[in-house]
Design brief:
The strands form 5 sheets. Strands 12, 13, 14, 15, 16, 17, 18 and 21 form an 8-stranded antiparallel β-sheet that branches. The chain folds into 2 domains: about 120 residues, 3-layer Sandwich (Rieske Iron-sulfur Protein); about 270 residues, Alpha-Beta Complex (Naphthalene 1,2-dioxygenase Alpha Subunit, Chain A, domain 1), CATH 3.90.380.10. The protein contains 11 helices and 21 strands. It has about 425 residues and is an alpha+beta fold. Helices cover about 20% and strands about 25% of the residues. Helix 5 crosses helix 9. Bound molecules: FE2/S2 (inorganic) cluster and fe (ii) ion. Fe (ii) ion binds next to loops.
Amino acid sequence: MLKQEDNERVTRVGRGTPMGELFRRYWIPAALTEQFPEVDGEPVRVRLLGEDLLAFRDTDGVVGLVDAYCPHRRAPMFFGRNEECGIRCVYHGWKFDRRGDCTDMPSEPAGTPLQARVKILAYPTHETGGIVWTYMGAREKMPAPPDFEWMRAPKANRFVSKTWEDCNWLQAMEGGLDTAHSSFVHNEFIGNNASLRNQDRSPRLEVERTDYGYYYVSTRALTEGRTYARLYHYVLPNQQMRSGTVKFLDNGGDDDPHAVPKIDGHLWVPVDDEHTYVYNWSCAVGEDGFPPGYVERWESFMGRGKDDMLPGYKLKRNLANDYMIDRDLQRTSTFSGIKGLNTQDYALQEGMGPIVDRSREFLGTSDRAIAAMRRQLLEATRAVENGEDPPGTDPAVQRGIRPVDRVLDAGQAWKDAFATAMQARW
Ligand code: FES
Ligand SMILES: [Fe+2]
């Protein structure tokens, strides 16, 4: 449970709000690389932390991220011409480069001093791991760009995607951190007791604080004294990493989408207070990368395959059509009756309403990781208000981390089993 004022504090992301100012101290995803297939190509509208922006890949191949409106008379830059290292407003022809400088002002007399004075708001970008990142805070506080292991993995071992979510970023991320729900809403095999998460539906949670946030381990009891332990990382302010190498007591076979050893993660990026883009990444940890066709199969299993999507990375199964819930399927085969693991999450998270009222909830022991995350975020917003640096902005503290999951033998402690497995190898 959170007091109403703390709920406001961690959910609102506009400039000048505590959480908004905290977010502006980290590099965050602004778009996917795939949205800018060519230099001088079509510009892309970006809304981020409640700010309307425009992104374009310039002639140098670098993505610029500028105010969506022209500083002259506020015309939309979206209709602009992306040409010769800049975006030109089509209303009166003023042109701006990716640094925000005005490089041409053809509607004014030649040599006008106005040209040097007028800037368009521009944020720096850094492109890596299939994502265009940006930093929206004060320049003198800008940390080095992120450097997670999954970004350093060979290209054949990784993919990224994103999905639009119609709710506040925090309830979306809480769904990601929540490990207990997977035994319920994601139970695709209600009759199959080989599924690890059918064996013990009330996992024990341990949370260990770190410089980047924390890691936590969920432990589920299996038969013959064995346990299933899964170690996740929460990386401030908005990323979670998990390992998905085991799903069944006996491997589920070739068509089991979990059969490829891999780690996954999400970054929950606030579009504004009531909308979120979830960036999804997966990274095959074996030598061979992903087998042919695997990525498509996985994305479809998650409910975000090509056939599942509308323009704008939105889901066809959405709140307006009750996620096309199939009550027959729910009676006979899956716990939720909703197709797609990702879609199941959205049904619950979006269905809470745009910003969930956390003063009306009751947390249990399985919510320990969620409570820890909220505490850290509240602390970090207060640190920034007091003029201190927030934790975890230095990539050095996150570079070496990797999530892991294993079935452990009777008496085996996860701390021993995971000591080296939780270190990054790339
Ligand atoms: S409004 Fe953009 S050039 Fe005039
Ligand atoms: Fe989920």
